[in-house]
Amino acid sequence: MRNLSQKINSEVARLYTERRNRAHQVRDERQAGLYRRHPELKALDEKLTAAGFAKLKAALETPGRQAEVSDHFRRLEEERSMLLTSLGLADNYLEPAYHCRACRDTGRLEGGWCPCRKQAVQSILPVYLPDPMDREATFSAFNLNLFEGEARAVMADYLQMAQIYTGHFDRIRDRNLFFTGTTGTGKTFLMQSIGHRLMDEGRSVVYVTAPNLFDIIMRYKRQQLSYRPDPELLEEAEMLYNAIYGWDLLLLDDLGTEMATQDTIAQLITLLDARQNRKLATIIASNQAHHKFSETKYDNRITSRLRGNFLIYPFMGSDLRLTSKEGR
Question: At 74, is the secondary structure helix, strand, or coil?
């Protein structure tokens, strides 16, 4: 069974192959269209191809004719350049329009990976996270009619807030949000809608529930402390760990459902502080009110961070899951 890193690498390779094939297909279609409209261009390109072979053959078999053949090839090039100018085409009109011009959709540059590979991994990794996001969770699918009375008005404001949040993600000062409310009041759906919109705009977003978050951290720490860590398990754990610590937006759901210990409290404080110091955004959803965290599982250090570094959004209404079930 392949591990996570192997699956990711395979998906990334497939993505780059698809991009290259698409770029070449578009190039070929464009060339065919130009040849249909300008048959003289096709004829000249065919002459250039034949002259190129003749030039190579002369270099290998008849060196005495090399100057003559090269001169003929140069004149054809000049003729082609003049024709392209008259048609309003650049000399490199047959260059494929790669998604990434730097690496030509290979993912590699001389000396290492192309920066676009990180973006490719970021677009693929969420599928393999322990908590995949609901694809239906989008702003357009957010149904305010499911809410009644005051809850509907509040959720309309929250939906508008979320759209402004994503539309001005780079410029807003307060990017940490805390969604609190009882089960089934739309916290996860709105959180994931924000995530999907930012992912569509090229942002790196990781969604994870609290129990799985602490499991990821523990697996990474375990591999780090191991005398002989498994290279594949370490790479996998490091990939997930780096995502929750370093991606643009962390969506942490169901905080408070995990088994709280001194270790998990310390890990949560470290994570929140690290992301705050790096100016990375975090959105947390919990069924518990933020001011009750110190009364239940967490101490005042967590409550202080939530109050000081997060905008608090209380969600209202009854359980939408039960409401929709009763309506069926």
Answer: helix
Q: What is the pTM of this model?
A: 0.73
Residue-level pLDDT, tens digit, the chain, 328 residues: 356 677 788 888 999 999 999 999 999 998 899 899 999 988 988 888 888 888 888 777 777 777 888 888 888 888 888 888 898 888 788 889 899 999 999 998 887 888 888 778 877 877 778 888 888 999 999 999 888 888 899 999 999 999 999 999 988 877 899 999 888 889 999 999 999 999 888 888 999 999 999 999 998 888 888 888 777 777 778 888 888 999 999 999 999 888 888 888 899 999 999 999 999 999 999 988 766 765 667 778 888 888 889 999 999 877 776 555 443 2
Residue 181: count of CB within 10 angstroms of its CB = 19
Q: Which CATH superfamily is domain 129-327 in?
A: P-loop containing nucleotide triphosphate hydrolases (3.40.50.300)
Residues in the chain: 328
Q: How far from the centroid of its chain's Cα atoms is residue 68's Cα?
A: 55
